[in-house]
Design brief:
Radius of gyration: 14 Å
Largest sheet: 3 strands, parallel
Strand order of the largest sheet: 1-2-3
Order of helices and strands: HHEHEHEH
Distance between the termini: 23 Å
Shape: globular
Structural class: alpha/beta
Number of helices: 5
Helix content: 40-55%
């Protein structure tokens, strides 16, 4: 589903982290420092952040906090169909600066993205 969400986001602008939707991660000779600096540069150049938060990730959580601290608008998407026995973290849903949308079907995620980007 990540790839489909990324493809839809591309209809609204440049997706800087397109690589996260690939099935296979290519091993490159990149240091942790280089990854951090690159990802923070991408974040700071962003107008908005669209984050799929169904699977917990320390890196995504860090980036969401950094986006919030810099006043970058954030949309968090949570797939209830993929995690029917769990709910999204209260650290996400309780943050009133984030827009959080639960979805079960891809079309719901696309509509949420369209609505978010049109008002951002």
């Amino acid at each position: 589903m990540y790839r489909a969400i990324i493809e839809h986001c591309k209809s609204h602008g440049v997706v800087l982290t397109e690589h996260v939707g690939k099935d296979v991660c290519e091993k490159k000779e990149t240091t942790d420092v280089e990854i951090y600096e690159r990802d923070m540069e991408w974040l700071l150049s962003s107008d908005v952040v669209v984050a799929e938060v169904t699977s917990p990730s320390l890196g995504v959580g860090y980036e969401l906090g950094a986006a919030e601290a810099r006043g970058i608008k954030v949309l968090c998407l949570y797939n209830t169909a993929a995690n029917s026995n769990k709910s999204c973290s209260a650290m996400i849903t309780g943050n009133k600066t984030f827009t959080t949308v639960n979805y079960a079907q891809l079309d719901e995620a696309k509509k949420a993205i369209d609505s978010f980007v049109s008002t951002a």
